Amino acid sequence: MTSIQSPSRGSTALRYLWSRRRWAYGAYMVVAALRIPARVGFRLVAPVCDVRLTLDNAARSMTKVPHIVLFAAFFVITVVQFDQLSRRALGWSLLATIALGLLVELEEGATRTGNCRLTDVLPDVTGAGVAAAILLVGALLVGLSRRVRPQG
Fold it and tell me: What is the pTM of this model?
C-alpha cells in the first residue's frame, strides 16, 4: 500500500521562490545598474570612451577574466527567466548581456572608476558564449539520457 505524501515545506518554499524569480531578477538588475554610480555618490561626468576596435585593445580586454565569469553567470541568470532553453531565450539573454556590458562601460567612464572601452564588451560576450555552450551541452546530454532506455 502506498501513501501520497504532501509536499514538504522545502519544496513549497522553492516553488514560491521560483514563482518570484522575475521580481528578484528585476531587483538584481536595478541594484547592478546603480552599484557603480553609487560608489561615487552619483557624481557623473561625460564619459570619454575608447571606441577603437584594435587588436591591442581587444587583447587587453580579453585579460579581464572576472568579466568573463561574472557575465557568464549573468547570462545564465537571464536564461533562467525564460520557461525553456530555446533560441529565443539564448538570443534575448545575449542581447541583455551585451546591453549590460555596454552600460557598465559607460558607467565606468562616467564615474571615472574604470576604463570605458568598447572592446571591453568582448569578455562579456565571451562569458555569455561559454555559458551558452555549457547550457546547450547540458541540454543535449539530458535529452540523450532521456532517449536511452535500458533494455531488459
Answer: 0.80
